[in-house]
Specification:
The chain is α/β, with parallel strands linked by helices and 280 residues long. It has 7 helices and 12 strands. Helices cover 23% and strands 24% of the residues. The chain is globular.
Amino acid sequence: MNPKYPIFIPTKGRFDSRLTVKALEKLKVSFYVVIEPHEYKKYKTILNPKNILVLPWSKPESSTELVKARCWIKEYSISIGAERHWQLDDNIYNFYRLNYNLKTPVGSGTIFRVAEDFVDRYENIAIAGFNYFMFASRKTCMPPFYLNTRVYSCSLINNSIPHIWRDIYNDDTDICLRVLKDGWCTVLFNAFLCEKAQTMTIKGGNTNIYQKDTVIDGRLLMAESLVRQHPDVVRVSWKWGRYQHHVDYSRFKRNKLIQKEGIIIKEGINNYGMKLIKLK
């Protein structure tokens, strides 16, 4: 079973790695790779041109075009009639189902469809997505999802929200905070996980803007940028030997899910045909 909403991978300077492309191809999930014109010749050698979307600008030396690409993707998805769309970072190795504290690799795109069906039960989910593999502890009893928190890197966007991405830092956290302040809900699934490469470990993308030099610490700029946008809920902290932004999501506990009229949720567990298979 495959997702019903389109999946987009905005990418730049990572043709050689193509982690998310390879991960989705392994699951036989359709997707669009979204690139600047100067990279088209490379991608057409390994992908059907129907699966390549070329942005209307080309800035090979710039690392700050992701936000523009995200906004362009949203407009494109609306133009093809999609009510929601997925945006996946280009550095995801694999996808998993977390069940009974076991992180099991999945072999199809079914988890995307399950997330979509869950989200479509409700009127007011703005953004949903999969938690990071590294944030799901096998020694902790975790709920199937967290409500009203940040969604990073693997996001299902409701195209009816009025907001678009802005600034070069923390664009995903910022848009989540803006929809939450408007009373929408966000859903971060723990039942389904994405295994993403750590920030700054792969060349390309936004790596350059987070790096530290002798004058500027990119992570401090990132944290301070979010504080300027949301001083009421964000502060700068120092953790793990580096600057971090710390967000207080507690004020959004009052945002409640609103189930659509006429939706009937059947009792019991629906595994959508997924089975646990021991590979030889």
